[in-house]
Queue: 2 jobs
Job 1
Amino acid sequence: MKLKMIISETKLSVGKCPEATKNPKVNAKNKEHAIKEYEYGKSQVKGQLCENCKAWNTQIVEKCVNDGEGLGFCEMHDFMCQGKKWCNTWVGKKSSKD
């Protein structure tokens, strides 16, 4: 399965926040989709958390959300997620050796 990654730097550089950060209904809809389709929130695989996934972006939350402590923006599924959660589309970040 190919997963399209959104380049967050582009979003931030043009000053636009993703719709899901501004509209709770959009965020809830996208989160519900991630729960149903990708098991978001289920028991995580050891070491595979949202906060260490390649799609996790805290810069978007810092820029676009007033109270986003513990949250990051999932660029893969377009919703604000909790760092200690997991989904089955987790992608590891590149190591410094790559």
Job 2
Amino acid sequence: MPCKCGKRPFQILANASKAAGRVGIALIKGKTVFTTEELANERLKICANGICPWYREKPVMRCAHPDCGCFLKAKVMLLTETCPDSRWREQPIQNNPT
């Protein structure tokens, strides 16, 4: 049964698992994976600007794109992630300072 975003729960889980894998690989390589708050807010504004047809605010802020389904507040904070509609891109990931 699809959720309110139009995706089946297993698809959302599969997409989230792929994102977690990208984050895990970056962390294993010693990379920083989190954006700045400023960049996260920029990304979120791009999603919520009223132009993106995939943005859903309720019941939670989500992307309803067929290749996504993510919780946007989490996704916009990750350097490893991109907008499936090419509205914002992955950012260069830097090594963690030691």
